[in-house]
Amino acid sequence: MESKINIDQVAKLARLSLKPEEKGKLSKDLENILAYVDLLQELDTSKVEPTSHVLPIENVFRKDKVIESGVRNFVLDHAPKRDGKFFKVPKVIEGL
Amino acid sequence: MNQYEPVIGLEVHVQLKTESKIFCACRTAFGAEPNQNTCPVCFGLPGSLPVLNERVLELAIKVGLALDCEISPKIKFDRKNYFYPDLPKAYQISQYDMPVSKSGYLIIRTTAPHPNPLPRQIEGGQAQGEGRVRVLQERKIGITRAHLEEDAGKLLHEGITDGSWVDYNRAGVPLLEIVSEPDIRSPDEAYDYLMALKSILQYLDVSDCNMEEGSLRCDANISVRKKRDEKLGTKVEIKNLNSFRAVQKAIAFEIERQTGAVEGGETIRQETRLWNEGKQETISMRSKEFAHDYRYFPEPDLVPFSVPATKIEDIRKSIPELPFSRMGRFQSEYGLSEYDAKVLIADKKWADFFEECIKEKVNPKLVSNWLQTDTAGLLNERKIEISAAKITAKTFAGLIKLIEKGTISGKIAKEVLPMMLDTGNTAEAIVKEKGMEQVTDVGALEQAIDRVIQENPGPAGQVREGKKQAMGFLVGKVMQLTGGKANPKMVNELLAKKLS
Predict the structure, then answer these.
(1) Rg for chain B (alpha carbons), in Å?
(2) ipTM of the complex
(3) Chain B: nearest CA to A84, how far in angstroms?
């Protein structure tokens, strides 16, 4: 049976670089997951209201109020690269 | 005749006017130090939890109602997954299949020609100073949806050579993305749509709509197809549009490029292109194959939302008179032409100023003319907003009253207005101080006229012989002699009498 999983594309989207033996193993794992979802699909859910959340709660808000966190320096210190008040990343320019 | 037509849809991102971000308590104000307005939530640090800002949803519903959208009974958020250094979590919280609102429309009034206008066509007024009649057509532009999402951070490339800087102050700033149907058919119509939309957003007071500060952004989707074809052509998305004029120009460029390509037998590639303002052209972005595979899934950190009908009604009641109906009222109540009404209502501050003037019982048409031509031009030169100008509706009405009473001529009023703008003095005070009252005293006028006749015997003789063309020259001389203060109508009458 041909694989349902395009492991190279999945890896690329997830920014993972996989060794050939990992590709085989992960393809199989992912196919098993999909097969399990197919099994779930067999259940009759026509009388069940669709939900996107596990908890039976809705409408949780916060007021529009400012609180200063003061975390900037801690986070900048832990960044792979810091340049003054900025984070520094490899050059990214699209197009132009 | 060109056998192709463009099909255009616009995506407008508007920053909603809140104190704090959409899912955390960080400040949204523009101009903070880099990375100052950040916290574990908008950085996406482990253990942090986003919670929706109540005000954001209210403002989004307000916009949805103003655009005649259906407000979704069930609202949920989704994750849009992609890697980019401006996105700290590697996903953006957005809305996929249950947006705040959908299926609305916006009626625009445009001078742009269209193959299938709505049946009703309105005669436009005389455009000030241009002497040509503009016919405005009503066009209905569908609104596909308006959904909430968080903004990303900002990448800076200038002043750094060995990398890029990232400022996450904007990460988590609340945005409403308003997506139009592909109902737009020309660059001018796109411009009119954006102006109308911006105007509504300002009337609703939901956004500053400042393109320079990033609180309003626009991307355009464009394709071309053979006229009368049902099927849409391949669409190209244009980004990096920094002004409404840039949108207009980029669309015009892209229509030409695509039409040329199709006529030359090429196929259009689905891609994203960037507008280059310097070169006035669109440039292909190296397209990534899977760039549009965002693998949306429901955001598990946020619960779903459902807004009670009573709450929606409360928000509906808070919607003020919108530009479209105000325009109609300006025509019926003040007798303005459709064109004048359209210009005045476009910016709420101008429309408010106009109505404040009218309360002083001055001629609306005169106020409208003086606002649109001289005042707009002078404020533009001085780069000040009407709301920040030293002139008030009351003092402006004072100037109009002096014109109405004939105390000063229009020519003198043009001199008084800039002085009012610069000093904040009333028109009455300036006219009095500078002795600018119109000369209506017959004796004084006759004296000036006699002198002009004496000094210009040639033209005076011509008028006596019935050559009326020389009259204008003599009236001009009298006006010159009196420093523009003579009442032109009286000068004409007196001159005609003397030379008959």
Answers:
(1) 29
(2) 0.88
(3) 9
- Is residue A84 classed as helix, strand or coil in its secondary structure? coil
How many CB atoms lie under 10 A from the CB of residue B346?
Answer: 16
Which residues are B14's β-sheet partners? B176, B216
A68 touches chain B (CB under 8 A): yes
Residue B409, both tokens: 């001529």
* CATH level 3 topology of B442-498: Arc Repressor Mutant, subunit A (1.10.10)
The helix (H) or strand (E) run that includes residue B205 is none
Domain ranges of chain B: 4-311, 347-434, 442-498
Q: What does the block give as tokens for B25?
A: 């308590």
Residue B418 burial by CB count (10 A; 0-12/13-18/19+): exposed, middle or buried?
middle
Instruction: Please give the structure tokens belonging to residue B259.
Output: 């039409």
CB of A52 closer than 8 Å to CB of B298:
yes
Q: Which of B122, B23, B118, B28 is nearest to B79 (CA)?
A: B23
pLDDT tens digits, one per residue of A32-75: 999 999 999 999 999 988 888 888 899 999 999 999 999 999 99
Quick check: A61 and B57 CB within 8 A? Answer: yes
CA angle B174–B237–B90, rounded 5-degree value: 45
Residue at A28: amino acid letter: K
For residues B342 and B327, the answer to whether their CB atoms sit within 8 Å is: yes
Reported as a single tens digit per residue, the pLDDT across B263-284 is 888 888 888 899 998 999 998 8
**H helices present in B4-138, as ranges:** 40-43, 54-66
Instruction: Kindly state the tokens that stand for B35.
Output: 């990375």
Q: Given CB atoms, is A53 within the 8 Å cutoff of chain B?
A: yes
Region class of B92: left (phi > 0), else alpha (psi between -120 and 50), else beta: beta
* Residue pointed to by tokens 């975390």: A71
Among B19, B79, B164, the residue to mutate for chain A (most A Cβ within 10 A): B164
